[in-house]
Known about the structure:
By secondary structure, the protein is α/β, with parallel strands linked by helices. Helices cover 33% and strands 18% of the residues.
Amino acid sequence: MRSSWRLRKYMLKGVLLLALSGCSEPAVESLPTAGLAEVPYQPDSGNIMIQCGALIDGRGGEMFRNVSVLIEAGHFTRIGSGIEPPAGIEVLDLTAYTCLPGLIEMHAHMLESFEELVDLTMYYDYSHEDFMQAGRQYSRLSVDAGFTSVRNLGNYYAWVDRDLRDEINRGAVVGPRLQISGYYLTIPGGGGDLLEPGGSEAAIPARLRQGVSRSVEEFRQHAQAVVDGGADVVKVIASGAVLAYGGVPGDPEMTFEEIAAVVEVAHAAGLKVAAHAHGAQSIKDSIRAGADSIEHATYIDAEGIALAIENDTVLIMDIGAGDWMIEQGRKQGWVEEFLRKTIETTQVQRESFRRAHAAGAPLAFGTDVAIFPHGMNGIQFAYMVEWGMTPMEAIQSATSVAARYLGWDDRVGAIAPGLLGDLVAVKGNPLEDTSILEDVQAVVKGGLVFKLPNGQPATAVAE
Ligand SMILES: [Zn+2]
């Protein structure tokens, strides 16, 4: 159990209030609820006043000094200096820190881990509960790292991400706001399939292949099932993948017509389509077919960049993971083919990122986390700056820009009145050193405190 400094503070405050008011109510009755949220909790119900030493609002404004942020009923209500805290509200002192909006991860796999890259066929035996337990753990790590909104772009076992999302939304587990995709839409043996070259399709449990499609019509049907099942976004594997058996990242796997069929179904339901596309042709096919984001975009050419700009198709380029993967993959004995393809794509993707950024293409923060440890998402900020972004651009790519392409800019992505009270704090100035963002000290989500500046996570994972 944590012996909370906050509790002592409240008791002190209570005594003081009693002394001033002469009130005879027991002190404990008038105290605010404890600072750290514990499961189960009521999501987005927090009331708190946060005093920030500095504040970056996520929308590109200057860095403000000594700002108070008021969150009521889970939403930002006032931001400024000289705000009087409403009676009875708890105050979180972050005057030694820089506050930012809760960070947004546009490309994650919340049920899976790099540890499985030694042999993906281990998934054949994983149960629903195995994946759920992993997902709960990774969700906690995501929140502790400051990523309070996450787009989960696929899992092999169909719909486990939906169950995780719903647990988080009930307050039964600590985790980010999740957009989920249900399962991958992919060709047989494609980047979203677990089929090894020469392997038997019959050996793979059907629950792991719900989105494997053989024709335009099958893609259409499976996309409709993704929509009907309650997904928030639809994921297609348009080109070969790095971390899949037998795929060539630069080569198309889905046809233009197949991608277009999925887009038609998704857009009719108001959902966006995220297209995994490394190769130049698949990138252009996906944009022309109406996909809303291009994931990886490794071999994007000048025409592809121009198309992305023209169509406002956001590029999610996971340029942060490669060095870690190459080093660890060797040590851990990952599948040799995966390691080879990681080496082949790492630098070329960074060069592409630099060209895309210089040309003015829309770019948002996404790391493909799972291919490196959950909670390490923040390492990508420094790479984005190294390859051309300003620190403020990198921060916005994970706040207001990401929120816009999620379709959630009316909820998250900035510290602004009316938005959900998601806020993180770091020690120092991330505009001078973006690596500070790898070490988030405090996390508030929906006005509830999940991490405090002593480095301790708030609660254990709910079972
Ligand atoms: Zn991915």
